[in-house]
């Protein structure tokens, strides 16, 4: 085991009289941590590595849901879905917590201790913090941050919420001018502003090496701690994401204002090191989990490509397109992706055709599609359990981009995956239930807070 | 960027006692995927930034609270944090996985700082137990003797506990350190769930960094400590009136 050898090599340099005792203690610790029984883990594989993990199957799925006028109370809300197999309310929405208005509910995330679920709005830039620890079946709104734009120095469109030790990292999508230049904002776990890191631009590269252009746009942010690297991706600004998709697609000028970069950062120093040329709006980033697997995947919404960002044999980080997602000429618009915990299977949703495609990415440079299924008229987010056996899909992308009519169904659909095909478990019609447009999901469990 | 790299001791920030088998950075060796490039720095290594080449913004004031030292003497934690840079780690001695590993890292940090007498006088280490029922001052004294350097030039390393749970609760709350009992007190890894966190606190009592075990690397924490000192000197120089 590498870590024991690392420990021992570190211990070998110590001249202390109590060295032997240290070896015994530390080795015991690692052995205990590494070789004890392994209960099944069930957790989103796309979550921050800093987060606590659920032991056993997830019990609840928290769905950050965009309010829709005329549907229920019309407000953005967190919907709690019961996914306990033996529960009488299995597959049902058992709790809803509205936030008092509509702010383009989009993404969020749990704190590192999983006690708080942060959810954000792209139009109002508000961040709502829910306590999911006191009663995981019944989250409670405990705080709303409504001065994000002011505190951050002008970041608009609070997007994700990514757990760091004792802190949350909030990537933005825009700024007060409503274009795509933006930054990353840090908060304490209890909602106190810490600092802002602006994305590198052509005018201020902040010392980063630029492959082609530094557009300053943002979207996702993900950390690989053991390599001290963070990757960010890029989408578009407020003026595009709040506008009807049909209009944007027909506007030649607007189409020029989509992200075409990914940035590799020195995470510890929070300084950008390299700006990759990744055209077509690279969105979700998923780092591989394996200790030798120094790479991440992303998909580009406008060019329908799967990209690999990897550390090459020369120690340099590089980005390359490794596969098409569907037929790029038909604009399937890949959106969310989910990488299995063993780094071998990648699920890719595409919004326009409502498909989920499964790729064998055992060789990350040569992905092979092994399965596809139409989930609905539109599909966006996918979350998978740590054991890879259960997947959850939601339908909404953006209020002005979602489809209407027959293809405009709003749902959460749950499937089982046996390595070959998806089999339906349950689904919830979010319009019929008066809930709204379901978007981002996180898992919960009462066992996290056993006392 | 210097070329030296830091050997990484990676453990996932998971709850003590939960299996680490499926954690972010698995303790089990897994062969790399077929066809995947194996770079020169696979495993756990990265280049250290130069001290002072980056900034560590103030996160929040470090809280105080009623604590006991190894001799059973009472203190306000805030008083112990003033005047020196502190590396504060929460732990408990019955922990069987994350805490001893973290304590090992702290002991290596103590060894490193011992080589720099000026720095050793400007910083210290504090291990704070969140298990006062078991971790009495006497227990901590024995535990400390196991880990603490006896070198005269080593920085001070305090081992603290709380008088009781009621005194401990506000301290844990202030540092966001959630602790709960496992259903099985005999569970592997120890009887308590917790996420490991350590804090870098400047001499004026502001938290400047929070470490998971991923980043509790002695050389990295040393670099951060030097960065605090260099940033302070740079700020003082910038604020000095022109002659």
Task: Describe how the helices and strands are arranged.
The complex is a heterodimer of chains A (about 450) and B (about 240).
Chain A: H1 2-12, H2 19-35, E1 60-66, E2 77-82, E3 93-98, E4 105-110, E5 116-121, E6 127-131, E7 140-145, H3 148-152, E8 155-158, E9 162-164, E10 167-175, E11 183-188, E12 193-198, E13 209-210, E14 221-224, E15 229-232, H4 238-241, H5 245-250, H6 252-255, E16 261-266, E17 271-277, E18 282-287, E19 295-300, E20 305-311, E21 317-324, E22 334-339, E23 345-350, E24 355-360, E25 368-374, E26 382-384, E27 390-394, E28 411-417, E29 422-429, E30 437-444
Parallel strand pairs in A: 13-17
Antiparallel strand pairs in A: 1-2, 1-30, 2-3, 4-5, 5-6, 6-7, 8-10, 9-10, 10-11, 11-12, 14-15, 15-16, 16-17, 18-19, 19-20, 20-21, 22-23, 23-24, 24-25, 26-27, 27-28, 28-29
Chain B: E1 5-7, E2 45-47, E3 60-61, E4 66-68, E5 74-76, H1 77-81, E6 85-91, H2 98-113, H3 117-120, E7 123-129, H4 137-147, E8 157-160, H5 165-174, E9 179-181, E10 192-194, E11 198-201, E12 206-211, H6 218-239
Parallel strand pairs in B: 6-7, 7-8
Antiparallel strand pairs in B: 1-2, 3-12, 4-5, 6-11, 9-10, 11-12
Helix pairs in contact in B: 2-6
Pfam families (chain B): SCO1-SenC
InterPro entries (chain B): SCO1/SenC (IPR003782), Thioredoxin-like_sf (IPR036249)
Protein name (chain B): Electron transporter SenC
């Amino acid at each position: 085991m590498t870590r024991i050898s690392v420990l021992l090599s570190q211990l070998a340099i110590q001249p202390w009289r109590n060295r032997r005792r240290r070896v015994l203690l530390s080795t015991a610790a690692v052995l205990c941590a590494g070789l004890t029984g392994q209960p099944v883990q069930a957790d989103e594989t796309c979550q921050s590595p800093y987060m606590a993990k659920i032991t056993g199957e997830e019990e609840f799925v928290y769905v950050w849901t965009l309010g829709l006028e005329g549907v229920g109370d019309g407000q953005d809300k967190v919907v709690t879905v019961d996914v306990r197999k033996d529960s009488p309310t299995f597959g049902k929405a058992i709790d809803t917590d509205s936030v008092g208005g509509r702010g383009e509910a989009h993404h969020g995330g749990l704190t590192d201790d999983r006690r708080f679920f942060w959810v954000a709005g792209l139009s109002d830039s508000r961040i709502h913090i829910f306590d999911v620890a006191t009663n995981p079946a019944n989250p409670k709104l405990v705080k709303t941050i409504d001065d994000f734009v002011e505190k951050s120095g002008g970041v608009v469109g609070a997007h994700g919420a990514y757990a760091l030790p004792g802190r949350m990292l909030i990537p933005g999508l825009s700024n007060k001018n409503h274009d795509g230049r933006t930054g990353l904002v840090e908060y304490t776990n209890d909602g106190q502003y810490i600092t802002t890191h602006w994305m590198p631009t052509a005018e201020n590269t902040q010392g980063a090496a630029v492959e082609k252009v530094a557009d300053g746009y943002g979207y996702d942010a993900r950390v690989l701690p053991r390599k001290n690297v963070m990757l960010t991706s890029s989408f578009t600004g407020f003026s595009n994401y709040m506008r009807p998709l049909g209009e944007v697609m027909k506007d030649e000028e607007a189409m020029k204002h989509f992200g075409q970069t990914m940035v590799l950062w020195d995470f510890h120093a929070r300084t950008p090191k390299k700006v990759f040329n990744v055209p077509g709006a690279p969105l979700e980033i998923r780092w591989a989990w394996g200790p030798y697997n120094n790479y991440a995947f992303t998909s580009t919404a406008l060019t329908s490509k799967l990209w690999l960002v990897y550390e090459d044999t020369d120690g340099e980080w590089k980005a390359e397109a490794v596969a098409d997602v569907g037929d790029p000429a038909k604009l399937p618009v890949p959106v969310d992706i989910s990488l299995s915990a063993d780094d071998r299977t990648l699920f890719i949703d595409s919004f326009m055709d409502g498909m989920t495609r499964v790729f064998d990415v055992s060789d990350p440079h040569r992905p092979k599609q092994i399965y596809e299924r139409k989930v609905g008229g539109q599909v966006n987010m996918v979350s998978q359990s740590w054991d890879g056996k259960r997947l959850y899909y939601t339908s909404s992308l953006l209020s002005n981009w979602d489809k209407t009519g027959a293809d405009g169904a709003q749902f959460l659909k749950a499937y089982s995956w046996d390595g070959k095909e998806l089999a339906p478990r349950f689904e919830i019609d979010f319009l019929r239930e008066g809930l709204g447009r379901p978007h981002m999901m996180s898992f919960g469990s009462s066992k996290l807070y056993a006392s | 960027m210097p070329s030296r790299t830091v050997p990484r001791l990676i453990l996932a920030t998971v709850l003590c006692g939960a299996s680490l088998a499926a954690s972010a950075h698995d303790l089990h060796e897994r062969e790399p995927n077929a066809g995947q490039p194996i770079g020169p720095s696979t495993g756990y290594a990265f280049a250290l930034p130069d001290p002072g080449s980056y900034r560590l913004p103030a996160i929040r004031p470090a809280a105080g609270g009623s604590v006991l030292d190894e001799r059973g003497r009472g203190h306000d934690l805030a008083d112990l944090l003033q005047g020196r840079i502190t590396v504060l780690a929460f732990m408990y001695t019955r922990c069987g996985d994350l805490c001893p590993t973290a304590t090992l890292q702290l002991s290596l940090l103590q060894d490193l700082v011992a080589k720099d007498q000026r720095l050793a006088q400007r910083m210290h280490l504090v291990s704070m137990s969140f298990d006062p029922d078991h971790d009495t001052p006497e227990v901590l004294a024995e535990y400390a003797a196991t880990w603490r350097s006896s070198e005269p030039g080593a920085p001070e390393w305090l081992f603290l506990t709380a008088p009781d749970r009621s005194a401990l609760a506000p301290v844990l709350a202030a540092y966001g350190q959630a602790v709960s009992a496992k259903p099985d007190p005999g569970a592997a890894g120890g009887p308590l769930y917790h996420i490991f966190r350590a804090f870098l606190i400047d001499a004026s009592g502001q938290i400047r960094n929070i470490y998971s075990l991923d980043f509790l690397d002695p050389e990295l924490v040393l670099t951060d400590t030097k960065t605090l000192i260099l940033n302070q000197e740079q700020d003082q120089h910038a604020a000095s009136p022109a002659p």
